[in-house]
Amino acid sequence: MMMSSGSDLLSTRASVIWIAALCAVLVFHCSHLFHMGGERRWYHSAHVVMLLGMLYMYAAVAFGVDWLPTNVWMIIYMATSAAIIGWMLVRYMRRHSFGYLWILALAQQGAMIYMWMPMRYWVPRLSYALVVYFALETIAWLTRAYIRPRAGNALAGAGGLVVIPLAHRSVFGDVCMTIMAASMAYMFAGMQLMMSMPPQSQLLAKQQQPAPSQGVSDSGHSGSGVESPAKAPIVVTSKLARPPAETLPSTPAPLAPEERYTIAAGDSLRGIAARLYGDARQWRSIMKTNPGLHPRRLRIGQVIRLPRSLSPR
């Protein structure tokens, strides 16, 4: 029985579409970066940095691109966030104006910090809250809700307006911002879904599924590896002593040599890597450990080998 990957939003095809769209947006921001000056140039610079991180993330999840460690990206976005906060504080203390869109840019940079955190530290409620936020931002850009705000909606200080519109916006510019916000919402939704366990209905279906010949583990037992609906869906067997299912740790732990994983309903290589290693991008490591394994042709009950070592992050 072939596996369906309905919960795997970050398929290769979807990722390629987002990469193409974000590349077009990158060209737009780079053109403004070179033709504009002052505050607007720095504003577009912040988005260029953000776009590079988004493009890398989609490429890493879809194609296993591994050029820079995760902590390098986190440092980059921490630095940009600190620079924006420092600049806004200095402008505010001097009673100088700054574009109100910098507040949105700061929120985007903060979201990029969270995105590049190891996925084992992700909080589902926060992840889905970010999905909702960027979905609302997508609608706001699409409907041009940010264009030409009234002066009465801006904060004012003794020296006049403290927060002012950055500039009059173009339709194409708002479309580019719409794509950026939508790509953020899609990425957070896709990666958080990969971290989620298959629903109970899938576990019951898996328990009723006849055990194929490929589902034989090293200990000689066949089946999908689920003993009851209450058990966890992740089943790992080893040539070493196997602990009882109830003693398996709830958080990812270093894997012992020669461990195996039994494919369950709803599984994808990205989801397996996200749950076992806290990093969906390690699906390439699983592929390298299993020559000939096709990520779109996984079978329920199929046993795959888990890598002894991961790609350096």
User: What general form does the structure show?
Assistant: elongated
Compute the number of structural domains: 2
The number of helical elements comes to 9
In N-to-C order, the SSE pattern is HHHEHHEEEHHEEHHE
Instruction: Report the structural category.
Output: mainly alpha
Largest sheet: 3 strands, antiparallel
Cα(first) to Cα(last) distance is 34 Å
Approximately how much beta-strand content do the residues carry?
Answer: 5-15%
Task: Record the strand order, biggest sheet.
Answer: 5-6-7
Portion in helices: 40-55%
The Rg value, from CA coordinates, equals: 23 Å
Kindly report the average pLDDT value: 75
Task: Count every beta strand, where a strand is a DSSP E run of 2 or more residues.
Answer: 7
Q: Any overview of this molecule?
A:
The structure is a single chain. The protein is mainly α. The chain folds into two domains: 12-195; 200-305, Roll (Membrane-bound Lytic Murein Transglycosylase D, Chain A). It is built from nine helices and seven strands. The chain has helices spanning 12-35, 38-63, 70-93, 101-115, 124-142, 171-195, 200-208, 269-277, 283-289; strands spanning 98-99, 156-157, 160-161, 163-164, 236-237, 260-262, 303-305. The strands form three sheets. Strands 5-6-7 form a three-stranded antiparallel sheet, with no helix packed on it. Strands 1-4 form a two-stranded parallel ribbon. Strand 2 (156-157) and strand 3 form a beta hairpin. It is elongated. Residues 1-6, 149-164 and 199-250 have low confidence and may be disordered.
